[in-house]
Amino acid sequence: MSGTSDGAGAVTATPAAGVQIPDEQPAHGLGVSLPPADASAKTEGTFPYAADLWAEGLLWAAVLRSPHPRARILSIDTKHAVEMPGVRVVVTHEDVPGDAGHGRGTADRPVFAKDEVRHHGEPIAAVAADHPDTARLAAAAIAVEYEIQEAVTDPQLAFEAEPLHPDGNLIRHIPLRFGDPDVVGEVMVEGLYRIGRQDPAPIGAEAGLAVPRPDGGVEIYTASTDPHTDRDLAAASFGLEPEQVKVVVTGVPGATADREDPGIQLPLGLLALRTGCPVKLAATREESFLSHAHRHPTLLRYRHHADADGTLLKVEAQILMDAGAYADTSADALAAAVSFSCGPYVVPHAVVDGWAVRTNNPPSGHVRGEGAMQVCAAYEGQMDKLAARLGLEPAEIRLRNVMATGDLLPTGQTVTCPAPVAELLHAVKEAPLPELPKDAPEAEWLLPGGPEGAGEPGAVRRGVGYALGMVHMLGAEGTDEVSTATVKVSGSVATVICAAVETGSGFSTLARQIVQETLGVEDVQVAGVDTDQPPAGPACHGRHTWVSGGAVERAAKMVRTQLLQPLAHKFGMSTELLQINDGKITSYDGVLSTTVAEALDGKELWATAQCRPHPTEPLDEGGQGDAFVGLAFCAIRCVADVDIELGTIRVVEMTVAQDVGRVLNPRQLRARIEAGVTQGLGAALMENLRTTRGQVRHPDLTGYALPTALDAPDIRIVKLVEERDVIAPFGAKPASAIPVVTSPAAVASAVRAATGRPIGRLPIRPQAAVAQAVQQQQ
Question: Aldehyde oxidase/xanthine dehydrogenase a/b hammerhead domain: from which residue to which, for each copy (predicted)?
Answer without folding.
Answer: 44-150
